[in-house]
Hints:
Layout: E1 2-8, H1 18-30, E2 34-42, H2 51-55, E3 60-65, H3 68-74, H4 78-81, H5 85-89, H6 93-106, E4 110-114, H7 119-123, E5 131-137, H8 140-147, H9 153-176, E6 179-182, H10 185-194, E7 202-204, E8 233-237, H11 243-263, E9 268-272, H12 278-282, E10 289-293, H13 299-303, E11 307-310, H14 320-327, E12 332-334, H15 336-339, E13 351-352, H16 356-365, H17 369-385, H18 388-392, H19 396-399
Helix pairs in contact: 8-9, 11-16, 14-17
Amino acid sequence: MQDLLFLTQRIPYPPTKGEKIRSLQILNHLRRFYNVHMGCLVDDPRDLEYVDTVRALCSTSHFVKLDRKRAKLTCLRGLLTNEPLSVTFYYDKGLAAWVRNVLAEVKPAAVVICSSNMAPYVLDAGFRAPVCLVDLMDVDSEKWRAYADIGSFLMRLVHAREWRLTAKLERRIAREADWSTFVSPQEAELFTRMVPDCAAKIQSVSNGIDHVYFDPAWPGAAEAPPYDTSRPNYVFTGTMDYPPNVDAVCWFAGTILPLVRRTQPSCQFHIVGSSPTPEVLRLAEAPGVFVSGRVPDVRPYIANATAGVAPMRIARGIQNKVLEAMAMAKPVVVTPEALEGIGAQPGTEVILASDAASFAAACLAAIGPEGRLIGAAARRRVLADYVWAERLSGFNPLLGIVETPASLPLPATED
């Protein structure tokens, strides 16, 4: 098999957040066709135990332990070099040297880079592979633009700078890479408007879902529920130091849940995910709100829920939390932002709500037979359109893959 260089900003295991889920699935897809040489950073000490798991998936690999506190200080050099701080945060000299060596000595037939932050490792190396694909996933500059509209005056300035410089980097990627890929047609279309002269090199390769892992028939669904199932329970899953997630749960707990509790005073809201911020932890002081932190398996929380909720007001790309709940045949109440990129029919496969009052009404509607019908239809939609293998085959023509892949196992999915 030919060689491929694969770069991602975080170790893609365990698959506990959207970018790690996608990069793990891409890695497993690519290793069926290539000898993969993977470089990444490990920014969570708890993930160090999985280095050997990921190393076993690759021909060669290079892992960098990233001290987040130190990186927050050293990344400030970006103020002098006019680089995005999100790029300098993930920069490591040793990883840069390893990338240059792989490009010069291994001479890979293709390079696949996950996220704009990692692209400078290759674009600045001075070597080029026959095919360079950057999976941008989302238009990150738009996320920073949204952040620039909120927060303190100083943070608005920081985010506005990040917006401008990230957009500049994204335009460079569009020009210099052979392909720029995104998780949804909407993100691809947005990027095409930014760089219309590169339209022919912009494609969408949507996310999928592990429908075998997230299965309503999972035997453990009824074993030791993590909360009282005699009352309505609404669940939100996600990394809880990610600002859009923080905004979403604060809005739900502070504004939407009190409206729901007027009719269903016993209902509960469960916030499930790693690294909850102090603001999120304080939400547990309100009646009916529970913050779990990181859990070994999110399935018991989803399986026993009345409904999943995704009250996103800031969102980019595809929300995996929505697909996971749909896969487990749960009704999901979503805002338009949370539904973007997911081809589910509002009213029959998900419940769509755009403001607090309609969101609360939708949560009440999810209780009972209507919710169960929507959940069953959601599962059918996932099986029809969101199987990972079918989605990831979209990378094949971009990389020139035509051969029959080897059959290789993927590590078990976790939270």
